[in-house]
Write a structure and sequence with these properties.
alpha+beta; two-stranded antiparallel sheet; about 20% strand; single chain
Length: about 120
C-alpha cells in the first residue's frame, strides 16, 4: 500500500509501472505476484505469502550463517536475481529484509525493479 500522505501523480505512475513489472517475474526464488490495484484510492499490491523470517531477523536471532549455508544462500539468491534479470528488470534493493527464508528455501521480495533497458543516464544497465 502507498500512504495517502505521499500519494501524488508521479508516485502513482511509478506504482503502476512497478505493478506491471512484477507480473513479468517468475521463478522459485522470488515471491510470486498475486494481485494489485495501482489505481485504487489507496494503491496496493500483493505477492504470495512466504512463511518464514527475513534474513536479518534470522541472523539477529541465531547469529551468522555457517559458511556452507552462506554459500548456498548466495547461489539461491543468484537464481532469484536471474529471474528478475530475465524479465529485463533490475532489483534495486536487495538487502536482508528483502530475503525471506521460507520452508522451501529463500525468496526475494520487494523487487523495486526498473527496466534494464535504460538507466537515468540513458546507458543500458
Amino acid at each position: 500500500m502507498i500512504k495517502s500522505s505521499v500519494l501524488d501523480a508521479g508516485t502513482r505512475s511509478r506504482f503502476v509501472l512497478e505493478a506491471e513489472s512484477l507480473k513479468k517475474v517468475f521463478g522459485p526464488r522470488v515471491a510470486a505476484f498475486a494481485r494489485a490495484d495501482p489505481l485504487a484510492g489507496q494503491p496496493w499490491l500483493a505477492v504470495d505469502y512466504v512463511h518464514g523470517p527475513h534474513l536479518l531477523r534470522h541472523v539477529r536471532d541465531h547469529g551468522p550463517l555457517p559458511l556452507a549455508e552462506t554459500a548456498s544462500l548466495g547461489a539461491l539468491l543468484a537464481e532469484g536475481l536471474t529471474s528478475v534479470h530475465h524479465a529485463e528488470l533490475l532489483h534495486r534493493g536487495l538487502e536482508p529484509q528483502n530475503i525471506l527464508l521460507g520452508p522451501d528455501g529463500p525468496k526475494v521480495i520487494d523487487r523495486s525493479s526498473r527496466s534494464s533497458r535504460s538507466s537515468r543516464n540513458g546507458v543500458r544497465s
